[in-house]
Structures are given as C-alpha cells and as structure tokens.
Design the sequence.
C-alpha cells in the first residue's frame, strides 16, 4: 500500500455538476457534486483508502482536499477525474498552449490520504485564493 501515488488528471463538466450549478455554487448539492475525485479501483486500493475517504490532490500549481468516490464512469488505472468547478480549479495548471484556455486535462497530480483535514467550501476556496478568507484564523 502506497501513501502517495501519481495519477493523470482529467476535468470535465459532469451531469451532476451541471444540475447542482443551477441551484447555486454555495449549495450542499454543488459541494457534493464537485468536491470529489473519481479513481480506478486499483488506485484506490494502492492508496489503502476506504469508501468516501478524503484525499489531498496536488499539482504543480496547488492542492485541494476532496472526497474519493467510486468512479461513476470507466476510468483506467492511473487516470483520475474531478468535475470542473471550484475544487478542480485549485489544481488546474495555467498553461494554455496559446489557446487561451487552461489545461483542464492531462496533467499529473499526486494523491494521498488527507488525514485530519477537511474539504473546504466553494466560498472558502475562492476567498482563500485571493487572500480574503479569514475563517481559519
């Protein structure tokens, strides 16, 4: 059992994220739809995770704590998915390859158990990204 693995990340819109976004980005529905990571069962086992355990996902530009859930889609070993949204945006590299669009898919991330940590709300993440969050003080 590894305590940290490297996976290839993809982010895309999901049906659950789209439905929840209509209710609002500060709703419990949006939180549950977007603050997750889907991984292949082999990768979950390699990390020794239990269902719905929190993990820290780290890329070259940031990190975020999300809940590891059983994949709702087919994922190959070594591939992970976070729905597009506030949580994915914490780790998406700013590279655009001259397209004007960030690199939403195909970048490496490290995934490890987030022992003693919690998932932050969309408001906490956005305000924290611009230096406005004061709730942890």
Sequence:
């Amino acid at each position: 059992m590894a305590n940290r693995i490297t996976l290839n990340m993809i982010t895309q819109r999901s049906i659950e994220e789209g439905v929840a976004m209509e209710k609002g980005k500060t709703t419990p529905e949006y939180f549950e739809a977007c603050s997750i990571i889907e991984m292949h069962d082999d990768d979950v086992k390699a990390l020794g995770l239990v269902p719905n355990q929190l993990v820290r996902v780290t890329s070259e530009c940031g990190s975020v704590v999300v809940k590891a859930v059983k994949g709702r889609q087919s994922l190959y070993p070594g591939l992970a998915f976070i729905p597009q949204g506030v949580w994915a945006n914490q780790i998406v590299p700013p590279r655009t390859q001259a397209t004007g669009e960030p690199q939403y898919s195909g970048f490496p991330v490290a995934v490890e158990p987030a022992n003693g940590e919690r998932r932050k709300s969309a408001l906490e993440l956005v305000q924290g990204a611009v230096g406005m969050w004061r709730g942890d003080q």
